[in-house]
Every structure is written in structure tokens, then in C-alpha cells.
Amino acid sequence: MKTKILMAALLSGVVMTAGAVTAQPVPENMPERPDFATLDTDSDGTLTMAELEARANARFTDADADADGALTAEELVAQATANAEDRVARMIARLDTNDDGILQMDEMQPRGGARFERMFERMDADKDGVLNEEEFATAQERMQERAGGRHERGHGGGHGSRGKH
């Protein structure tokens, strides 16, 4: 039983990583999680371990294309690709302000406005209007710490150290 839960968690990690690589910029609500009602399969207003395990088992079964009870790299990649395609379609639907089915550069611009500017100002420790390498590295470390904290609590969002090779 623990093995199936571990495999479901591993599958979730692979899916999140593939989505982060495939669908830049990463949508704020990624990965999509089931709501309480979806997980509460007996509709009694509570979640049991059995219901959560059933969800993990269903995810495993969905990914196990040949139904042999094991996940190959190819099956994991296929599942991650399908999930990434779904996320990309949702991203286009959400950002495509001119409804032409594709995204132009102006539709991909940061939508934070003043929020984006405040974030930049917080990153600019010496308040000179530009980010130096040290300020940038400090900001990345803070973001990774926050992402790590969400990941440890089971809230996802940690996407590793993008851009570092």
C-alpha cells in the first residue's frame, strides 16, 4: 500500500516537472488538484485514508497504459505529456485575450502590474532600480525556500532551480 502511495507521489512529481518545463510561464494554479468533493467519493463530508489511497491508485492505473502493475519511463512520460498538453490548453484559454487560439507576446506579459513592480522593488535591495547578480541570487533562494516549504506541506509549487545548468 505504501508503495502505491509512493509511486503516486513520484508520478505527481514527474508530472509537475514536465509541466514546468513544457508550459512556460508556469500557470499559477498548476498542478490542478481535485477538490474536496471529488476526493470525498462517498459524499459523507469527510476524507478517509481509503478515499485518498483510491485517488492514488486511480492515478497509477491511469498512467499504467499496459496494465502490468508497473510504470515504465515511457508510461510516465506519456502521462506527463498528456497532463502538460491539458495545462497548455487551459493556459491558452486563460491568456488568449484576442480569442485567436494562439498567444502573442503582449498576452504573455506579466499580469501583475503594480504587484510585479512591488516584487521587483523588494528584490532590489539597494534600491538603485536594477538587480545585480547578488540581489537576483538572493531572490531565487527566497523563492526556492518558499517553494520547498509548500512542497514539504504537500502543496506543490516547487519547480527546482530553473535556468541553472
UniProtKB/TrEMBL annotation:
Residue span of region Disordered: 138-165
Record keywords, A-Z: Signal
Signal peptide: 1-23
The keyword Transferase belongs to this UniProt entry's keyword annotation: no
Transmembrane helix among keywords: no
Domain EF-hand stretches: 51-86, 111-146
MF terms in GO: calcium ion binding
InterPro entries: EF-hand-dom_pair, EF_Hand_1_Ca_BS, EF_hand_dom
Gene3D superfamilies recorded: EF-hand
Source organism superkingdom: Bacteria
Compositional bias (Basic and acidic residues): 142-155
Protein's name according to its UniProt entry: EF hand domain-containing protein
Species for this entry: Yoonia maritima
